[in-house]
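Summarise what follows for lecture notes:
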Amino acid sequence: SWGQENGASFRVLPYNEGNLEMQFVHRSVTHSISLSQTDIASRENSMSALLTLVAFERWDQSHLDRFKYLPKLKNRLELVQGKQGNVVLNDTYSADIESFAVALEFLQQQSPYNRKVVVLADFEQISRDQQAWILSVQNLLNRYSVNRLFLIGDVLGEHANLFSGAGVVSVYPSTQALLNSSDLNSISNAGILVKWAHRY
């Protein structure tokens, strides 16, 4: 296991924003790896890669030195300048509650003073435990004070009334229906998170 808590087998030490070096403690010994990116997703991906190396008993220094060449994943926390003063965070690489929480935190850090807008479509994991999934989404939207919510898909559409705490909520049957509407044109000077499963 890895994390920042004391019980983690690989405990990540606190780091400064923008620091390309990540330190972790394993069995009371401090190790460090150099990264190519400093965002949260890259740090998480690096730790997943590290634990894979550990499982294969290949986490020698020559392998650790290669972390600085790990590429940034496409569609994973890609931040771009949008129209009308908006900042758009594309996080469509994966669609699960954990990555949704990370994306909202990242949006908060990158545009703390902007209004928050979320374009959200059904996730693949909905079918497993729909009620728990809806509750998790609701809690995250409330925690990060989302001001405007665009929902795409059958399940989210059916439960739109549960997300009233996220300001103005609009529902669309498909991505194309949202794009065909003029609703996105009304958004300005906002941080916009786009989060959904690949099929959308």
